[in-house]
Each structure stands twice: as structure tokens, then as C-alpha cells.
Design brief:
Elements: H1 3-9, E1 13-14, E2 21-22, H2 24-29, E3 43-48, E4 56-61, H3 65-80, E5 83-86, E6 95-98, H4 102-115, E7 124-128, E8 132-136, H5 147-152, H6 164-172, H7 182-193, E9 199-200, E10 210-213
Parallel strand pairs: 3-7
Antiparallel strand pairs: 1-2, 3-4, 5-6, 7-8, 8-10, 9-10
Length: about 220
């Protein structure tokens, strides 16, 4: 199959044979430099050494959309998330927990990639603090989801999606499920780890920071 026919069959290109052009999801998943077409279409990760805002390191994850997500998750798993083991006297089993449960962080970051508007020149931001992780994805949830719903519902099933085709590809790559299971998965992982509940916020539809409080 020719590249032109393959692109058309995958619905990542449209147009007549003499004027074929890629669609947005094709540029995001099959172009090594999507930021050429979508300003700041990458993930920025900042690791803060303390609460002073002066000691930190920056990392940028660019390239194909799913590669960004996988590389950022791999970095978090290798350098940020770690297991704590506490031996209990007169008990064979040790108490094991993580500073941040990986399953919750994975679900939240995939959600941020899925629901970000790539028309807006703002990257996905991941802020790592000694006691919490903050994720920012612009411009926030699609109405009617608002701050009240985010704060009071542990399961949110939306009828309108900003990026259905992005969700389709992420699902095919086993990076998301697309069945409204994200919030329950996050809450369940935090609870199982003994961590406080996550905090979901949105302000005037501008951004959705997701904070995951853990233990240093």
C-alpha cells in the first residue's frame, strides 16, 4: 500500500489525490516535530528541590505525541517515584507504599495529553514538588464540566470530547481507555497507596491543575 493510500485509510489525511493534506491528529502522531504546526505542543517538566522556587531542573519532552507521553512517564517512574518500605516489629510483612502512586500519575498525564487544546500555544506543565505533583493542561474541561463537578464527583462521563481522534489513538496504544474510568482510577490508586485524595480545579476555563499529594 502506498503512503498516500495508507494515510487515507488511517484517516490521517484528506483531500483529493492531487491535493491531499494531513489532518491535525496525523501531524501530532506521525510527525517528529509537531511543534512546527502546533506552538509548544510538548510536555514541560520541572523538578523542584525545595519550596523556594529557586532550585529546580527543567526537562522537555517533544516529538510524536505518544512518544512524549511515554518518555515523560518513564522519566517520572525512574527518577521521581520510589517505594518506601517500613519494617514493623513482630510482623513478617513490611508496609510498602510509594511517594506518589504511579497509576494515578500515569492516568492524569494521559488525560492531560488527551484533553489539551493544541490550538493554544501553552504546553502541558508538570511541576514536581517534595510533597506533591501538579499538572496543568489548557484550557480546561469541556462544558458542562466545571469546578463544582470536578470537586464533588469521582466519576465524570462527558458527552463532548475535545480530541476524539487523539483519544482513539491513545486507546489503540493502550495509553488510555476512553470510557470515563480516569477519575475512578486516580482516586482508587491514591486511596490504595494511603495518600490523600487528589485535587482537581479549573478557573474560568483557563486551566486544570491536578495536584497529587504524596509523602517525601
Amino acid at each position: 500500500m502506498s503512503l498516500a493510500d495508507l494515510s487515507r485509510s488511517m484517516h490521517i489525511a484528506k483531500g483529493a489525490d492531487e491535493d491531499r493534506y494531513p489532518v491535525n491528529v496525523g501531524l501530532l502522531f506521525f510527525n517528529r516535530t509537531p511543534e512546527k504546526f502546533f506552538p509548544r505542543a510538548w510536555i514541560e517538566l520541572v523538578v523542584h528541590q525545595d519550596d523556594s522556587d529557586r532550585s529546580f531542573t527543567e526537562h522537555y519532552f517533544k516529538g510524536l505525541l505518544h512518544v512524549q507521553l511515554r518518555n515523560c512517564l518513564a522519566f517520572l517512574k525512574a527518577t521521581v517515584i520510589y517505594e518506601n518500605v517500613i519494617k514493623v516489629p513482630h510482623q513478617a510483612e513490611a508496609i510498602r507504599f510509594y511517594n506518589f502512586p504511579y497509576e494515578a500519575v500515569e492516568e492524569a498525564l494521559a488525560n492531560a495529553v488527551y484533553h489539551k487544546s493544541y490550538e493554544i500555544g501553552s504546553p502541558i506543565e508538570v511541576q514536581i514538588w517534595p510533597d506533591k505533583i501538579e499538572l496543568l493542561s489548557f484550557p480546561g474541561p469541556v462544558p458542562p464540566v466545571d469546578a463544582q463537578i470536578l470537586n464533588h464527583q469521582k466519576r465524570i462521563v462527558a458527552r463532548d470530547y475535545r480530541n476524539r481522534r487523539i483519544g482513539d489513538f491513545l486507546k489503540e496504544l493502550d495509553l488510555t481507555e476512553g470510557r470515563g474510568t480516569g477519575f475512578p482510577t486516580i482516586y482508587r490508586a491514591m486511596n490504595k497507596n494511603g495518600s490523600p485524595d487528589p485535587v482537581f480545579e479549573t478557573q474560568r476555563g483557563n486551566f486544570v491543575p491536578k495536584s497529587f499529594w504524596g509523602y517525601p
